[in-house]
Backbone:
């Protein structure tokens, strides 16, 4: 067998520098490139649906939605899903002309200009990190509950959170394909336990198909449904991160749009079905009963309709559901940071990938250290892991993502306004316009009902909301500074040139 050695550098084959970057090129190298073609539609969908954490949302938030909204609660998830499908319509059409893995900020840069793009890049970094880091508090609570339920032992929440932090880092470093396989298993298990519980409810005759009460105008427009809509939008958090995995997707022009639509459609239908089933089984017990079981309604349902073992399984899978969300958001944070570093906006070192796994290992390490500092700080301060670490840190992230979605709709609308590029007016003008209006309504509803998300007073809530808009203002203020002092990075912002070597 004849072996071929790589040719030595020539005048037409630029030498490679010691950092791995080819001379005269700003494209990726072995040191900065992600592993291409490892994710299909289903893999990307598993990642982003896992970020939403269906079991966590159902067990942790759905009982509150039922208490506030009554029979109409399931409809809120359908309405939120339809609004986000309008957003996804134009978002996926524009993905064909956005070469970068920067997702939101790349779209906004292309449609609304670099100042808006840079501000949205900062907002995305802060929002995704806030959502990821805050969830360590929820994991600590769920983990201690599971350990106590199964063994009777008492474990500090931060021990579980910090152990998970190490595992998330190691899995993130091992490559997105490895993480996707882990998330596929965890998502399947958490979905399965909810299906089992709902099947048990149906089998017992506690609910029957053909009961439309949840979707009548009376139910949909009942008092309290505005607050439930705010909760429903937050339940879809992370679905738009499909575009972040463009560089690692097979045939990204097809897989990314498909994964986006599949993710939104699945979450809307699944959430509505589960809430409808459990709501019909327990809604007639009255608001006092729901208020008493806000934290364990699904465990009660599992015990009553399936058995005590099912309730134990649900407690364990709630931990795995939260862990899956942490891993999915860790991957999203890393790829945002890597994209900005590859374009020169963040330190170039953050663009370096693992030599074996081709994962954004340096950005992953930086994100892990940031999480360690925040989680460790809350632990040392004796803060409540749920009310303070989870709710206070997560809430600005959720509002930030809604604002980014609205900005992305505006970017799509402006980009296609004069040239439809072969797409229908319905898809790239009408749908994004409706999505923009409805997302603005969702932002207003979420802010107006923020006390439901934070369980905090007016002063804390004002600070949390103010942080979101302060990040945007900071980005706009710093934009001319970046343009003046880092003109090359400013020119590359949102273009993907640092990632794929485009001229």
Residues:
């Amino acid at each position: 067998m004849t072996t071929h050695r790589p040719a030595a550098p020539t005048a037409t084959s630029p030498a490679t520098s010691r950092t791995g970057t080819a001379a005269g090129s700003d494209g990726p190298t072995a040191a900065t490139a992600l592993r291409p073609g490892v994710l299909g539609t289903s893999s990307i969908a598993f990642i982003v649906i896992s970020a939403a954490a269906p079991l966590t949302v159902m067990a942790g938030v759905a009982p509150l939605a039922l208490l506030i909204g009554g029979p109409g609660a399931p409809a809120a998830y359908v309405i939120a899903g339809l609004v986000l499908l309008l957003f996804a319509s134009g978002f996926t059409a524009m993905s064909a002309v956005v070469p970068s893995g920067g997702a939101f900020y790349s779209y906004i840069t292309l449609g609304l200009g670099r100042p808006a793009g840079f501000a949205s890049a900062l907002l995305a970094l802060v929002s995704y990190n806030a959502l990821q880091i805050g969830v360590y508090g929820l994991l600590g609570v769920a983990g201690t509950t599971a350990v106590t339920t199964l063994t009777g032992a008492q474990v500090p929440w931060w021990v579980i959170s910090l152990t998970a932090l190490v595992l998330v880092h190691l899995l993130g470093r091992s490559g997105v394909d490895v993480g996707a396989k882990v998330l596929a298993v965890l998502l399947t298990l958490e979905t399965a336990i909810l299906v089992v519980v709902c099947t048990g409810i149906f089998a017992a005759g506690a609910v029957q198909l053909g009961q439309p009460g949840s979707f009548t105008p009376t139910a949909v427009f009942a008092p309290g449904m505005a607050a439930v809509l705010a909760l429903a939008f937050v339940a879809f958090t992370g679905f738009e991160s499909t575009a972040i995995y463009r560089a690692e997707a097979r045939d990204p022009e097809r897989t990314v749009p498909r994964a986006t639509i599949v993710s939104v459609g699945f979450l809307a239908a699944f959430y509505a079905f589960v809430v409808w089933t459990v709501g019909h089984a327990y809604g007639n017990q009255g608001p006092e009963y729901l208020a008493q079981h806000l934290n364990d309604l699904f465990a009660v349902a599992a015990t009553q309709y399936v058995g005590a073992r099912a309730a134990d399984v649900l407690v364990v899978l709630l931990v795995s559901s939260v862990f899956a969300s942490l891993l999915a958001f860790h991957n999203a944070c890393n790829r945002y940071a890597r994209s900005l570093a590859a374009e020169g906006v963040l330190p170039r070192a953050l663009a370096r990938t693992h030599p074996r796994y081709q994962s954004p290992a340096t950005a992953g390490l930086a994100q892990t250290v940031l999480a360690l500092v925040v989680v460790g700080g809350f632990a040392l301060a004796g803060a409540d892991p749920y009310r303070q670490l989870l709710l206070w840190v997560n809430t600005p992230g959720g509002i930030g993502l809604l604002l980014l979605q609205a900005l992305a709709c505006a970017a799509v609308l402006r980009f296609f306004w004069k040239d439809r590029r072969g797409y229908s007016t319905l898809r790239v003008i009408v749908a994004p316009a409706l999505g923009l209006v409805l997302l603005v309504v969702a932002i207003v509803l979420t802010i107006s009902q923020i006390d439901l998300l934070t369980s905090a007073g007016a002063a804390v809530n004002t600070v949390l909301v103010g942080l979101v808009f302060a990040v945007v203002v900071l980005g706009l203020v710093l934009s001319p500074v970046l343009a003046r002092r880092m003109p090359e990075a400013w020119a590359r912002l949102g273009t993907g040139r640092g990632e794929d070597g485009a001229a």
The domain at 41-481 is CATH 1.20.1740.10 (Amino acid/polyamine transporter I). DSSP finds 21 helices and no strands in the chain. The CA atoms of residues 18 and 31 lie 10 Å apart.
